Amino acid sequence: MVQAQIMSGKGERKSDLHFKRKTFSQEEGKFVCTSEGNATFCSHSTVTTEIVCFSTVTVSENGLSEPCILLKHNSKKRTNFKYSLLLFHCTNILEPCLEFKLQYEVTDNVTVLNGPTVLWTHGNNVYCVSSKSNIISIVPVSFSSVKFIGEIKTKGIAIVGVRECTAEEEHDSQSDQAVWGNELIAYFLESQSIFDGALFLPHAYSAVVTSLLILTVEGTEDNLETSVIAATSKNQLIFFEGGMPKKVCQLPFDGPIDIRQATTGRNEVLFVVAFSSGKVCAVRKECWQVVSSWQNVQAMHIDDFACCGSDQILLIFENSSIIEDNLENFTLTDVCEITFTSGLVLIEELQKQLEVKDQILMKSSKALMNLVYGQEYSLSDAEEEGLVSLWDEERSSQSSSSEILAVPKKLPDLVDKVWQRVIGDSWVVGVNLKDAAYLSLDDISLSLLMDNDICTAAPVIQWNSNMLHFSKILPFVSFRPCQAEPNPKRKRFEPSATFSGSAYDEESFSQIQKSELWAVIAVTDLSHFLAFGDQNCTVLLHATLKENPQGGWKGGDRVIFQCSTIHFSMEDITLGRYLPKLMMNSELLTGYGSVGGRSEVQESADEEVFHGLSFPAQVKVCSRTADLDQI
């Protein structure tokens, strides 16, 4: 969290921006200042500087998510207004990334989105300016009122508003626009396309909707599928799907003005509604009911303040002040498992619970590290008595922690090779298996253990794992094709005879056809690692064993293999060393090669590419139509 304040000296011709970067300390139950800085704006005594808004955006140049602040510099005559957007870097450096001048003051629908891009409304027009062009442009659609300005994952920046009907449309008495006197219009900034607002919600709701939150927009222009949350002046929260209302929830307060989404613990989704009277309520998506509400709220923010991998709601109440650099009178909650309130009386009990959690986490981390490096770690009986399952599941009395994590000594080495590729904006890590006969292929995945020298807390990064199955060609033994001879002339093949390659061995060829290759891959967004630079990661393979009485292990046992250590290098990515190596001759992918010797693929290619993923040369792809979108 970044806290900023404008400080002007009396009689001085300058304005100072004092900012602090704070993190929430669960042990102390408060926000602690980690760094601070100052920025001075030299100006005339007739010019004042004010804060317009804060936001957190993804910078297009480096892909990092950074907080920013929009400032307004205006003269006392209020004839000229200059706006500047500043980025807060982690090194306590303010970077000016956008400046523009206007003849009027921006007051309505000021929004800062990724890029960064600044949008606002003035009159019936919507204006925008981005850091790339630094040129103010106007949206070619006039809106009498704007209901939504935001960014949609698949369509980019979208603007949804109400447009009054023209004289020609009013003559058409059968149209919805003529009946209600106005219509909803959706405009997508990047594609410069206009859509009928009825795809989001009926035109009849345009007069009563006070705020919109667009969840998804998928499909083509001819077949657009949407899901929208709308708050109305009737104090209702309505869920629309495909332009039709599906769920309705009665809100407890009047005047809803803003809707935000929060993904809390256990993947529960909350829709947080703010009201003009300083009240806030939370509606759970699953049951579509109000689960909590607050009053006298001055500001509301949603982010992962507790660094636990999910969102929390930060509510700063009225009459809140900063005493000895500490924020007073606030609540941090996810309406599920986490709730921190300033001035909590039972702070000692909370600290004891945190100490116990820290001890368990430290011991669990130590046990995991010992497992990775092949060392044994055991808890005493006294320590095991107080442990309970972290998940709502029954504890098996027949299996212990050592049976779940220990790798059987008789289990052969299953890992053939570990590789990595960069495809588009994704980082792909794969493990080729020598033999998957001992593993349950329905329950197998990869994870990466990062070096924690660069940060105090390991980042929570989501990986998508999948199992790929290919037919594999072993090196062919050359033979001469010949016509089949009559049975009396065929020479019987003796088991003791040495196979010279001159005879046709149907059993060997059948074995070649049945050869298979299994590869486990994990895919994540490359932008997660850009902030950490060069990094060593340990690749761990999580799997469940099959039943094998001869091997000395039981079916269903969970094991973790330490496959290898890979190096994530920004220099190698810049030089394109991890990019797939595409083959110029597409005919090499259509067959197994010649049967009289090594194929052209085996002779010339070190690697083969299968739909954008590069595999080692011994992996022979039998199909060119496989779909890797399931990864």
Structure explained in plain terms:
This protein has 631 residues and is mainly β. Among the domains are: 1-121; 352-385, no CATH class; 402-482 and 501-630, no CATH class. The chain is built from 9 helices and 38 strands. The strands form 11 sheets. The chain has a 4-stranded antiparallel beta sheet, with no helix packed on it. It has a 4-stranded antiparallel beta sheet with strand order 8-9-10-11, with no helix packed on it. 20% of the residues are buried. Residues 392-405, 473-485, 488-506, 508-514 and 588-631 have low confidence and may be disordered.
Give keywords.
four-stranded antiparallel β-sheet; disordered C terminus; single chain; 631 residues; 11% helix; mainly beta; 9 helices
